[in-house]
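Re: [ENG-882] Designed sequences occasionally contain unexpected residues at chain ends

Forwarding the minimal case from QA. Structure tokens:
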């Protein structure tokens, strides 16, 4: 596949200050630090305060990405924001973010692709920039999952955290060249991960609230299996169609849902686990925000070196999946 001139010029992330540890969760539900670490690899996660919103967290991550890219907010001509926990159902959180940044013209919209949202955004952003119609795009994911988690349900509440990760993509970025993106979906298994109520199919009523249908539910075991097989096949697809093998990868940045899933994906690709970037232990599953946060964290810590081949891969609600190859 032909290498484009479009690259990730800057990244940024934000996680709330408040840390919720496994020990804290032991006091809330029937669980244990040992179970959570053994089954998920998660030790702690960040939870935003009542004054923090998806757009406020997005603003902090975005300003860092813009600064790193040397792009002013007014020079953005496209804002694509992944989220399924927007500030309000209307307007798009991306428009609230745009106003916060002081940009008054860029088309701004939310994208709903759960854990795959960053890779969906990257694919859209890259293709729109490739058309020549856009110059500087902000691609980000911000999630306040703590508001859709049922804190009485041990099956799910131990897994999730809040956070935002952003990337600015431009022509001639000089780094982070986007070599290829691949995205896909299969809506036939949508029920494996869903928030049943709060949309037009089941609007909020007292009954809905009593039945706790406003919260996220997931069939963990089935999702686990599909996550591994989908991420392995998506990774192989982008590697093969670009003439690479797993041996060529410097870093694998998988969606951070569960350490066991990430290890199984590495095994499926015959990739040493040392090449997998892992921060699920500190942040938990922040849905689509995990990949841009990992990328920004790696850039900030100077882990990514020029020329590194980076494979990002995700799987999540929808069902959705994606894989993207970057030459740093
Ligand atoms: O981000 C989008 C994609 N999401 C994912 O990829 C997540 C995929 N799924 C997973 O990560 C895992 O399936 C979980 C971490 C959610 C669950 O791990 P598991 O190894 O699949 O456990 P399980 O659901 O099969 O449950 C095993 C046992 C059950 O007890 P019994 O039936 O064996 O007696 C659960 O009730 O563990 C129990 N359990 C817990 N025990 C202590 C479930 N949650 C907990 C808990 N603490 N928090």
């Amino acid at each position: 596949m032909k290498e484009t001139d479009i690259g990730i010029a800057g990244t940024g992330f934000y996680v709330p200050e408040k840390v919720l540890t496994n020990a804290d969760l032991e006091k809330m539900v029937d669980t244990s630090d040992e179970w959570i670490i053994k089954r998920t690899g998660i030790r702690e996660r960040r939870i935003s305060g009542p004054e923090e919103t998806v757009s406020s967290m997005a603003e902090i991550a975005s300003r860092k990405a813009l600064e790193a890219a040397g792009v002013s907010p007014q020079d953005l001509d496209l804002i694509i924001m992944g989220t399924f926990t927007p500030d309000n159902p209307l307007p798009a959180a991306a428009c609230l973010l745009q106003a916060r940044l002081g940009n008054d013209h860029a088309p701004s919209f939310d994208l709903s692709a759960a854990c795959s949202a960053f890779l969906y955004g990257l694919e859209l952003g890259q293709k729109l920039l490739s058309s020549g119609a856009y110059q500087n795009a902000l691609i980000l994911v911000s999630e306040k999952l703590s508001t859709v988690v049922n804190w009485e349900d041990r099956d799910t509440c131990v897994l999730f955290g809040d956070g935002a990760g952003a990337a600015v993509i431009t022509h001639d970025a000089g780094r982070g060249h986007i070599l290829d993106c691949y995205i896909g979906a299969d809506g036939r298994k949508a029920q494996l991960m869903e928030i049943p109520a709060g949309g037009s199919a089941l609007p909020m009523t007292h009954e809905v609230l009593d039945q706790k249908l406003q919260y996220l539910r997931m069939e963990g075991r089935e999702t686990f299996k599909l996550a591994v097989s989908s991420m392995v096949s998506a990774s192989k697809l982008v590697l093969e169609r670009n003439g690479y093998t797993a041996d060529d990868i410097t870093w694998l940045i998988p969606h951070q849902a569960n350490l066991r899933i990430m290890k199984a994906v590495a095994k499926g690709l015959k990739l040493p686990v040392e090449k997998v970037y892992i921060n699920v232990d500190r942040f938990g599953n922040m849905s689509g925000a995990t990949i841009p946060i990992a990328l920004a964290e790696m850039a900030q810590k100077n882990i990514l070196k020029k020329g590194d081949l980076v494979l990002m891969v995700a799987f999540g609600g929808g069902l959705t999946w994606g894989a993207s190859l970057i030459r740093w």
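QA comment: On inspection the terminal residues look reasonable. The chain has two domains: 6-174, 179-327. Proposing we downgrade this to a documentation issue.
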